[in-house]
Amino acid sequence: MPELPEVETVRRGLEPAMVGARFTKVVQRRPDLRFPFPERFSERLEGQEVRSLSRRAKYLLADLSSGEVLVMHLGMSGRFLVTMDGATRMPGEFHHEHGGAGAHDHVVFGLSNGATVTYNDARRFGFMDLVPRAGIESSKHFAGMGIEPLGNELSGEAIARLFMAKRTPLKAALLDQRLIAGLGNIYVCEALFRTGLHPEAPAGSLVTKTGEPTEKAHRLADIIREVLAEAVEAGGSTLRDHAQVDGSLGYFQHSFRVYDREGEPCVTPGCAGTVARLVQSGRSTFYCPECQPHSPSKAR
Ligand SMILES: [Zn+2]
């Protein structure tokens, strides 16, 4: 499943193909993905210019000259394939010969700059929607969504405000999309490990009695941004290196320090611990019991 850094990588990969270009032809091959496509989908896109391509949590938002926003979500297996005219290709961009229509190519965007952007989704948990820009924050996809983790909103103060008096385990609180939006299992495990916080520690242990962020709260905020930024950077380098042979954007190998390493020695220098796994809310949590002691006093 693409996590936030992968979605950001996809955004960066699509930007040169889409921004500033008009949709000249939109081919929609099915009535639905996870949800039905909006009515008159192709018609509402064709002729419109993409003014900008942004991201909110794991959603991609293409702002159109019509005042609507094309909202795209990759679901479990969604990916984009980009074909750009060799003659108009610029350094740093990627190029891929995408021959023929794949069985899971559900939408094909033809753009005025000659680029073709194909949406492929084998499991069809992704979706697309068209939403008016005005009031988009209160639209069904974004209403009640938590703060953006890869940005300035996330700080020790924000964590204190969101986690105050919460007995919820830290891991669950960090995965709660109503608090922080778009943080997934892998990056939460990595961030807790690097911060030295036990995944089952109460979320409220990062907040003082007077509602101030603890030292660890500040550190956790910094580390979450750092972990995500590193992953985005790793994704960016795969784009540059053309390492993905099928030309797809957004799925890349990234080495994790604790995620999926159960039974392996902890990578922290001088630590004799072994990475352990526990299951929280049905999902695996990986952590080092030595680096992440389960003691609220140590979490300060
Ligand atoms: Zn350790």
TrEMBL record:
<dbReference type="InterPro" id="IPR015886">
    <property type="entry name" value="H2TH_FPG"/>
</dbReference>
<keyword id="KW-0227">DNA damage</keyword>
<keyword id="KW-0863">Zinc-finger</keyword>
<keyword id="KW-0862">Zinc</keyword>
<comment type="function">
    <text>Involved in base excision repair of DNA damaged by oxidation or by mutagenic agents. Acts as DNA glycosylase that recognizes and removes damaged bases. Has a preference for oxidized purines, such as 7,8-dihydro-8-oxoguanine (8-oxoG). Has AP (apurinic/apyrimidinic) lyase activity and introduces nicks in the DNA strand. Cleaves the DNA backbone by beta-delta elimination to generate a single-strand break at the site of the removed base with both 3'- and 5'-phosphates.</text>
</comment>
<dbReference type="InterPro" id="IPR010979">
    <property type="entry name" value="Ribosomal_uS13-like_H2TH"/>
</dbReference>
<keyword id="KW-0238">DNA-binding</keyword>
<dbReference type="InterPro" id="IPR000214">
    <property type="entry name" value="Znf_DNA_glyclase/AP_lyase"/>
</dbReference>
<comment type="subunit">
    <text>Monomer.</text>
</comment>
<feature type="binding site">
    <location>
        <position position="166"/>
    </location>
    <ligand>
        <name>DNA</name>
    </ligand>
</feature>
<keyword id="KW-0479">Metal-binding</keyword>
<feature type="domain" description="Formamidopyrimidine-DNA glycosylase catalytic">
    <location>
        <begin position="2"/>
        <end position="126"/>
    </location>
</feature>
<keyword id="KW-0456">Lyase</keyword>
<feature type="active site" description="Proton donor">
    <location>
        <position position="3"/>
    </location>
</feature>
<dbReference type="InterPro" id="IPR020629">
    <property type="entry name" value="FPG_Glyclase"/>
</dbReference>
<dbReference type="Pfam" id="PF01149">
    <property type="entry name" value="Fapy_DNA_glyco"/>
</dbReference>
<feature type="active site" description="Proton donor; for delta-elimination activity">
    <location>
        <position position="283"/>
    </location>
</feature>
<dbReference type="InterPro" id="IPR035937">
    <property type="entry name" value="FPG_N"/>
</dbReference>
<feature type="active site" description="Proton donor; for beta-elimination activity">
    <location>
        <position position="58"/>
    </location>
</feature>
<protein>
    <recommendedName>
        <fullName>Formamidopyrimidine-DNA glycosylase</fullName>
        <ecNumber>3.2.2.23</ecNumber>
        <ecNumber>4.2.99.18</ecNumber>
    </recommendedName>
</protein>
<feature type="binding site">
    <location>
        <position position="104"/>
    </location>
    <ligand>
        <name>DNA</name>
    </ligand>
</feature>
<dbReference type="InterPro" id="IPR015887">
    <property type="entry name" value="DNA_glyclase_Znf_dom_DNA_BS"/>
</dbReference>
<dbReference type="Pfam" id="PF06827">
    <property type="entry name" value="zf-FPG_IleRS"/>
</dbReference>
<comment type="similarity">
    <text>Belongs to the FPG family.</text>
</comment>
<feature type="active site" description="Schiff-base intermediate with DNA">
    <location>
        <position position="2"/>
    </location>
</feature>
<feature type="binding site">
    <location>
        <position position="123"/>
    </location>
    <ligand>
        <name>DNA</name>
    </ligand>
</feature>
<dbReference type="InterPro" id="IPR012319">
    <property type="entry name" value="FPG_cat"/>
</dbReference>
<keyword id="KW-0326">Glycosidase</keyword>
<dbReference type="InterPro" id="IPR010663">
    <property type="entry name" value="Znf_FPG/IleRS"/>
</dbReference>
<keyword id="KW-0234">DNA repair</keyword>
<keyword id="KW-0511">Multifunctional enzyme</keyword>
<keyword id="KW-0378">Hydrolase</keyword>
<dbReference type="Pfam" id="PF06831">
    <property type="entry name" value="H2TH"/>
</dbReference>
<feature type="domain" description="FPG-type">
    <location>
        <begin position="257"/>
        <end position="293"/>
    </location>
</feature>
<dbReference type="GO" id="GO:0140078">
    <property type="term" value="F:class I DNA-(apurinic or apyrimidinic site) endonuclease activity"/>
</dbReference>
<dbReference type="GO" id="GO:0008534">
    <property type="term" value="F:oxidized purine nucleobase lesion DNA N-glycosylase activity"/>
</dbReference>
